[in-house]
Amino acid sequence: MQESHAVKKTMMIRTCRWSVGLHILSVILSSLHGCSARDTITMKSSIVDGQTLVSAENSFELGFFGPSRSSNVKRYVGIWYTSNPQTIVWVANRATPLSDKSGVLKIADGCLKLSDKKGKVYWYKERQYKRLNIMAKLNDTGNLILYDVDGLKRKLWQSFEHPTDTFLFGMKNDENLVLTSWTSEDDPAPGNFTFKQDPQANRLVVMNRSITCWRSWRESGKMFELVKSLTIKEDDTQVQKNERIVMNFTGELQYWKFDWGMKDWSLRWWEPKDRCSRYNYCGNFGSCNINSTLPCKCLPGFKPKISEKWNAGKFEDGCSRTSTSYGTDLLSLKRMKLEYPETSYIINNEEACREECLKTSQCQAYTVNASNTDRQLSCLTWTEELKSIQEDQDDGYDLYVRVPVSDIAPTLRSCLTCGTNFVPYPLSTGPNYGDPVYYSFDCDMDTGQLSFMTPSGNYTVTHVDPTASIFDIEMQAKEPVNCHAMHSLGSKILQLNRSSPFNVTSSCSSNFTNDSPLKSTIEVKITWKPPLEPTCNSSADCKEWPHSTCNITGTGQKRSL
């Protein structure tokens, strides 16, 4: 009995010790949780490397971090998503990292200050408030705010007014907003690219130092609407914390949204989304086609300013008019987009816009847009060079460019242009144009699309080079091919007969080497043979070919001989 009583007593003591131990552990954990979950820094508190502030609803966290792939010990103070610490949305000392883990963020000398163990200051809130009782708080929008505690929490400073590379819900989209990219994926130092608003033109812009990389289409476009929607009132209860816009170090302005199903960030939108989206990629009067391997071409009636650079794939110098006269003829282009002029005005009908352009000596082009709200017609006229031209756009519009007809159809037998495609003699889009032997082309006047007609079907023409007697067509391949196989593939699919004046060439576009794999949509180059003498019905048809008359050849055809 005594032995049994001793055992029970021992068990009771152990149970009591476990209970006391668990209680102490619970208190410690609770205390630690309370410390780690605080969201403020007061004049009597601070955080050191290894400690963090956490917003009230556990959405954002502020603390010290170091780029994961960096070999050097660099420490920064930043704000990130609590659920995803790798997603940094703000950095305090991005240009002045600490070299060790002795950093402390505190309120001292009337301002928020970051220093090391030796007292060296790496970052501080510029203005000092020595006579105020101030406090820094991290709220649930990711905004770090410096308050005057005794002044009804009057805001003295906030990180939302000093962003780094990320735009979050609640920030103001005004002329003061500037996002600056990181230098690289692992270096938060200010990089080359900035995003801001151009208040004069009411556009969003991305700059590479002093060079414009991208501009929004005035008050329109997906990115413009996204930035506008992210700007909310502070008391809005429907704050979305799972979306952000980032000025990436690659030069892309990116819109990210958190995918709760995948539990990861998803890139939903970005600009520039392709080379044609880059600002004025093909230069003034140069048209960009994203579906073409050779993206740039001069508008009909224009020529490269510097042929050598243009032929080498350097398009920034753009194009200039073939002749100095604007003329009174109008080149009609479909599904076009370009940078808007600064002014527009309401008109009653399209003819009024045409007349306004033709009577203005410096008018280069015009278009008419119908308002979606009040159905009014707006006339837009360009008196400066046409920039950032993109063709074959679903949301494009009809553009009318002043070009003398003699610059786009130099002979009576020349085809008229088809969209942005110049169709040189002897190529033919109809019985009254070009040489009948070369009547293998069709122009869709509604879209401005030129097609090459073959026994196997019609193929989109993406580029015509009259000087080299070559044009490019777009073909679909079931699987990627290389330039070496392109010649046999093209000849087999097109089914051109031996008498055809057209031949598939084995040369590739300048964008590819002979062994580089091509995507399933490829461009095949086709040459045309020099034509015979022009056909005619009478000697009057031969006036453009001096010293010739209309005679019957051995084949029975009449030609200018």
From TrEMBL:
Residues 38-159 form the Bulb-type lectin domain. Residues 319-404 form the Apple domain. PANTHER family: BULB-TYPE LECTIN DOMAIN-CONTAINING PROTEIN (PTHR32444), OS01G0783900 PROTEIN (PTHR32444:SF235). It comes from Gossypium darwinii (Darwin's cotton). GO terms for molecular function: protein serine/threonine kinase activity. SMART domains: B_lectin, PAN_AP. It is an enzyme of class 2 (transferase). The keyword Glycoprotein applies. Residues 272-308 form the EGF-like domain. Its EC number is 2.7.11.1. This is non-specific serine/threonine protein kinase. InterPro entries: Bulb-type_lectin_dom (IPR001480), Bulb-type_lectin_dom_sf (IPR036426), EGF (IPR000742), Pan_app (IPR003609), S_locus_glycoprot_dom (IPR000858). GO terms for biological process: recognition of pollen. Keywords: Disulfide bond, EGF-like domain, Glycoprotein, Signal. Residues 1-37 form the signal peptide. It catalyses: L-threonyl-[protein] + ATP = O-phospho-L-threonyl-[protein] + ADP + H(+); L-seryl-[protein] + ATP = O-phospho-L-seryl-[protein] + ADP + H(+).
